[in-house]
Amino acid sequence: LGDRVSGDIGDRENPTPSRCLGVFGLSLYTTEQQINHIFSKFGPVEKVQVVIDAKTGRSRGFCFVYFASQDDAKVAKNECTGMEIDGRRIRVDFSITQRAHTPTPGIYMGKPTVSSRGDNGYDRRRDRDEYYYRGGGGGGGGGGYRERDYYQRGYRHRSPSPHYRRSRRYERERSYSPRIETRSKG
DNA sequence: GTTGAGCGTT
Hints:
Number of helices: 4
Shape: globular
Largest sheet: 4 strands, antiparallel
Strand content: 15-25%
Structural class: alpha+beta
Strand order of the largest sheet: 2-3-1-6
Helix content: 10-25%
Order of helices and strands: EHEEHEEEHH
């Protein structure tokens, strides 16, 4: 009961130990150098790869760390989970994938970067399986992005996060005080 | 500094 087939990569809850760690919850501004600096304290690190969003060119907030030794990876995982980098609490697990996907020329086969989880009250009907690239070669498209704009979701429907509450934009929005009764201005 | 869940498309 509960034991898995050995040799499998495990699942999200229970990844099989390996030399590759996934680090999640990163600040968008944390660099591979920073990660390398931190994780190298536990043993030789062969490579750090921050995952970059193909569309925006920015970090997607997670990365992969390849250790030379699986034992070092295990120690690093235990030591670094919950650690704070650039003001964000990170989570570290053995990666369930060992490497990036093989590129598919002309068409992106992944999911859109922004997804709705359906638990914050907005847009739970949106299907998140839409590709966000249009085919470059075979599809007859221009290689551009889909018409759908995943980056214009209704953030106003969400409850503001602590981070957002500290932002100037939030201050500004609040100061509008859209009370209907106050339209008594003449 | 998009306000953040998240397993990668050189």
